[in-house]
Amino acid sequence: MAGGSDAGCWGKFLAGSAGGVRFKEIGGKLIVLFAIFINGLLYGGTYALLAVGFALVFGVAKIVNMAHTGFYMMSAYLIFIGVSVLGYPLIVAVLLTVVGAGLIGVIAYRLFLDRIKEHETAVMIVSVGLALLIQELLLLFFGGHYKAIPPFIHGFITISDQQVSYQSILAIVVSAVALLVVWFLLSKTMLGIAIRAAAEDREAASLMGFNVGRISMIIMGISVVLAAVASSVAASIFTIFPTMWLHPLVIVLAAVILGGLGSIKGSVIGALILGFAESIVVLTVPKGGYLGGVVSLCIMIVILMIRPEGLFGITFEEERL
């Protein structure tokens, strides 16, 4: 009895003392740090998939595809159509979307971008127009209402009093696996050799027998597939709407420039930096959700003032990828 009474008194003392307050504050800070870590991986992984796809197209085809996140948005709506309109199981809708989005990306490249790829300004204008076309079609058929896609896995896991959804963990794992697949493709396959050769010197690659035009078309398909994969894991966590391509576009541009134009490694690291920065702002600053893009651009500007070529920027064309 005495021991139980002593324990009760000690508990009351801690609860009312400065030491108890510090303990609670430390526990609260750890929870916030854990949430920042998980959200940073979630945001950073999604942005990294988009940034790698963008950097691949720029490195090989030498075009700035401003419609890249438009395909990300399109993929989210294709999954929504498959699940909510056609009644397909989620996994079937995702697989069909990934394949279909890749084909749409190849067709869009052939119809709109391939013919004008030598004119950088024209490519940017046409690709922005393509993204706006996707946006307006979605507004026409679905209106401006927010839509939701069911998660692959329901439920939460509790870690240190912090709940993390299984879907968030799945999104982080899928992003990491997809990035490893891209690394393997570029480093260990004949297609990867052709891609790197075309990125380093298009004329030399053509003289060596590589079909640079076909490689550029394949890269466009791969980049849109990566956007669809990012959409398949992120759309179940975030709501989808017809202007959802704008914010990721700002982040992707900032990540690619921050990491160094044409650098795949730089794009991944830049995306992770901005993902964690956005997570910190969202969780620690009042109404920080509205400041994510601004913070990303500020970080990009500061880095470029110190290192104009970016963190892993190139000096010569042959250093790409």
Summarize the model shown.
The protein has 321 residues and is mainly alpha-helical. It has a domain at 38-242.
Give the SSE layout.
Elements: H1 2-16, H2 18-61, H3 68-85, H4 90-113, H5 120-142, E1 156-159, E2 162-165, H6 166-188, H7 190-200, H8 202-207, H9 212-234, H10 246-259, H11 264-284, H12 292-306
Antiparallel strand pairs: 1-2
Please describe what this structure looks like.
- By secondary structure, this protein is mainly alpha-helical.
- The chain has a domain at 38-242.
- Helices cover 74% and strands 2% of the residues.
- The protein has helices at residues 2-16, 18-61, 68-85, 90-113, 120-142, 166-188, 190-200, 202-207, 212-234, 246-259, 264-284, 292-306; strands at residues 156-159, 162-165.
- A two-stranded antiparallel ribbon has the order 1-2.
- Strand 1 (156-159) and strand 2 form a beta hairpin.
- Helix 2 packs across helix 10, helix 3 (68-85) packs across helix 9 (212-234) and helix 6 packs antiparallel against helix 9 (212-234).
- The longest helix has 44 residues, at 18-61.
- It is globular.
- It starts with a helix and ends in a 15-residue tail after the last helix.
- Residues 1-24 and 315-320 have low confidence and may be disordered.
